[in-house]
Design brief:
Layout: H1 5-14, H2 17-38, H3 48-69, H4 77-101, H5 106-114, H6 119-138, H7 141-145, H8 147-152, H9 155-175, H10 189-193
Helix pairs in contact: 2-3, 4-6, 6-9
Length: 194
């Protein structure tokens, strides 16, 4: 039996859903969520219309970008999301393996371990590096920086920058820990009674 999804995906591609419709829907949802979260225009309940109008207009600007710049993003977004999914699956498998060896309440154990002594910044830095790596591997860096910028960078410069990042981040992670305070010396209980 032939695949049911292939003709559907090809028809969506023919009508421009991957180049225009889906990026428009995704960007409008992201803009709307960010406007509600940041509360730039006041409480979200009071300004639903303003948040909606701003997010729709910003999403139309995203929709206009492929047409005005002549860049097709339909071949760039699917690899970006697929590579992001692979990274998320790797994290999920790591968490499942950690769950076998750590106590049952894994989120509280991770919260105590990661958010103590600014280790959350290291996790954020690693996530940012992975995000930029996916951005460059998927080809979306051409849209972010422009084809002229990427074309002028030689592969040697890019390789050196990646190696420097891979060397500097662990050093920052190790040295940027919180300052340890001197241990408190407790008096014996017998001395307190006297």
């Amino acid at each position: 039996m032939p695949d049911v999804f292939t003709p559907v995906i090809e028809k969506l591609k023919d009508i421009g859903a991957f180049n225009f419709l889906f990026p428009y829907i995704l960007s409008s949802a992201i803009f709307y969520g960010l406007l509600r979260k940041s509360q730039i225009f006041g409480k979200p309940e009071d300004n639903v219309a303003v948040n909606g109008i701003v997010s729709l207009v910003a999403a139309f600007m995203v929709l206009a970008y492929p047409i005005l710049s002549g860049v097709s993003i339909e071949g760039l977004l699917p690899p970006f999301f697929m590579q992001s999914l692979v990274v998320l699956l790797i994290f999920m498998v790591v968490l499942m393996i950690m769950g076998m060896f750590l106590p049952p309440d894994l989120p509280s154990v991770l919260e105590k371990g990661l958010f103590h002594d600014n280790k959350a910044l290291a996790v954020l830095a690693i996530a940012g590096i992975l995000g930029f790596l996916i951005l460059f591997l998927s080809g979306l860096s051409d849209i972010l920086l422009g084809k002229q910028t990427i074309g002028t960078l030689s592969p040697d410069i890019i390789n050196i920058a990646v190696i420097i990042l891979l060397l500097v981040v662990p050093i920052l992670f190790v040295t940027w820990g919180g300052k340890t305070s001197a241990p408190k010396i407790e008096k014996p209980k017998e001395a307190e009674r006297a």
